[in-house]
User: Fold Molybdopterin-dependent oxidoreductase from Streptomyces osmaniensis.
Amino acid sequence: MSNEAATATTAAEAAPAPEPIPHGLGASLQPADARAKTEGTFPYAADLWAEGLLWAAVLRSPHPHARIKSIDTAHAREMPGVRAVVTHEDVPGSPLLGRGKADRPVFASEVVRHHGEPIAAVAADHPDTARLAAAAVIVEYEVLDPVTDPEQAFEAEPLHPDGNLIRHIPLRHGDPDAAGDIVVEGLYRIGRQDPAPIGAEAGLAVPRPDGGVELYLASTDPHTDRDRAAACYGLEPERVKVVVTGVPGATADREDQGFQLPLGLLALKTGCPVKLTATREESFLGHTHRHPTLLRYRHHADAEGRLVKVEAQILLDAGAYADTSAEALAAAVGFACGPYVVPNAFIEGWAVRTNNPPSGHVRGEGAMQVCAAYEAQMDKLAKKLGVDPAELRLRNALATGDVLPTGQTVTCPAPVAELLQAVRDYPLPALPKDTPEDEWLLPGGPEGAGEPGAVRRGVGYGLGMVHMLGAEGADEVSTATVKVHDGVATVLCAAVETGQGFTTLARQIVQETLGIDEVHVAPVDTDQPPAGAGCRGRHTWVSGGAVERAAKMVRTQLLQPLAHKFGMSTELLQITDGKITSYDGVLSTTVTEAMDGKELWATAQCRPHPTEPLNDAGQGDAFVGMSFCAIRAVVDVDIELGSVRVVELALAQDVGRVLNPAQLEARIEAGVTQGVGIALTENLRSARGLIRHPDLTGYSLPTALDAPDIRIVKLVEERDVVAPFGAKAVSAVPVVTSPAAIASAVRAATGRPVNRLPIRPQAAVVNAQ
Assistant:
């Protein structure tokens, strides 16, 4: 052998074996679309195109409240290039839409109830022509005084045929005469946050030869969107098809039906494909936002700091229409006392209509608002008692087997005390050095910070909880099909990938169950059975559960012939790394050999145990499962300028089971960062119902420079026995908890009450007297 050959052989022998590709549950499997998204080749809804495409534009009301006296579309119709103009008169089916309650018109006809409400839509051969034609529609208004204070909605004239009160929940739990030695009160206000979806809201409608229409949308709930569209168009649901295009990400309902439905109407009227890409201003005006909330609290505690009674009034501003406000109110009232043991609770909750921008589903709705308030109350109690804030929370921490104020027993893992102890005992970050090169560490950054001597550090705590899946009797069900052929598995499930990682999880489930590495998840459309909305972690539970059941059925089909041949049960066979082996080693073959060219498939459903609506006293087993989180926030506050820098957020969370470590950590970090925006910058302001600065200049989102150090101190893996895989939703509860923790830390730094979110600079200024 030559020296060169010997050297090559030695090098080959010395070369390390390639790293195995991670697969199955518990591995950090990379998302299938990660490369396309990072390279900019992922097809988003705004990238859609069709032959003979027309462009759409929507005319929206400039007033928050007005009576429509007349609509003149003649000038718009006569413009060159305009192919169609539609108003309320052109809606052939149901004129109303809405996610929770159908009370919102497709087009306003007699009354405008909020700024930006759709009046008419136009289709033209160029987007500029469409916008000009929409502006040419002449609407004569009689401007009315808007009702913008939710407290005034109780006495104001009805803004809607259904009245101003959407829902009232009077929760009664325990002894109304109970009283504590220590009483603290507070009034709290939570601002309006926008989901600010990444990428433009866009869609394409294509007419079908059978008189139906196909809608290509970044929908998060395609079957519900299809059914509403079909009702609006006066068509059978099977003649409307929704195809889910690339969803950039969603922390709420992704698309506004206020422009989805006009798209289909225009396509049906013109017989041509019609596309609409909303501007950022239209997004702010059209889609729903987090409910602004007013909260009044009174906490009673004994001399040791143990809670005796909580009294609260919670008022949610739903804006012009109901949407999901009834669900948000149930979460707010149900979790109004937080993850604490409260033997007596008396909560009044209302959701009311106003002429403010519409409110609806946003991650952690209801639970986020009350968390900010009850945690502020816990800080007040600790201060009045002279007790460490973390210690006070530990004395009252909820645990498995305790009873919520709704009367529901907590049967899922609830390691609240363990979570709080983990973040309390985690080492605090070092103090910044008083040197010029570290000026960027000060609140406000270089050139924007005051004197270092004006900076105060604060440490605060937040405990939060959310419910998973729907509540109050919602039928949570999902269907999935798993097919295997030629060593490749395909998953068909209408669960939309909104950034929560479902498609990656589905691949991991099939890999784990069938030992097949190559797994594809089919694109989503409404020809598949429904899987429900992509919110509250429900796809991890119900859709993941359906995929697992279907994969296990295929596994049985695969193993039964082998088990029969060797005279054993399928339970004695296992699949590992693509190989099928028996417990005694007699049988050893590959999955591919066992398939022998056959195609196997199975369809399965997953439906969690039922819940029930809250009764007239706010009592009932309304929630399927719950997730908990503890966060310790460290902030630096310039007490002269009121600027705040979040230094570190240490987090502990119960996750049930870690299914994908990298994905889970990313979801938690994203949720925490979203909470930073809620705490400090995000507030969609309006004046007398008019949205001010509906753009990303006037609405400040946190950037990478605003993100603090996020320390995931502990993940408690105590499996929930009723959940598939034992896993819990992870992204909503950090959003709920981090604003409360940050506000607590600002209170600790300044001694100010901090009773409003986002925290305004004047709330963090300490006057030198």
In short: The mean pLDDT is 90. The longest strand covers residues 455-471. The CA atoms of residues 667 and 731 lie 5 Å apart. The two ends are 91 Å apart (CA to CA).
